[in-house]
Design goal:
about 80 residues; rod-shaped; mainly alpha
């Protein structure tokens, strides 16, 4: 059961990260470059998405590495995340 939960957490994080990357590349960057929306409104609309993105990238990377390592040692059922 623990392995299934970890796999679901990793997959959910991948989808979330993909959505955040799309948000930044499709909306945030183009809107900043064209100045269509004032910077104050950009902050209101998108908050700190650009600051949060690298945190989630690192989280997914670390989580995946730890899970993969545990699977290769046949200890995935003992992995603890906290």
């Amino acid at each position: 059961l623990r392995v299934a939960v970890l796999q679901e957490l990793i997959e959910t994080e991948k989808v979330y990260l993909s959505d955040m990357e799309a948000l930044v590349s499709v909306f945030v960057f183009p809107m900043k470059m064209t100045s269509v929306v004032p910077p104050s409104d950009m902050t209101i609309i998108f908050s700190n998405v650009e600051d949060v993105l690298p945190i989630h990238q690192k989280f997914l990377e670390t989580l995946t590495e730890r899970f993969t390592e545990a699977q290769s040692q046949d200890t995935a059922h003992d992995v603890q995340i906290g």
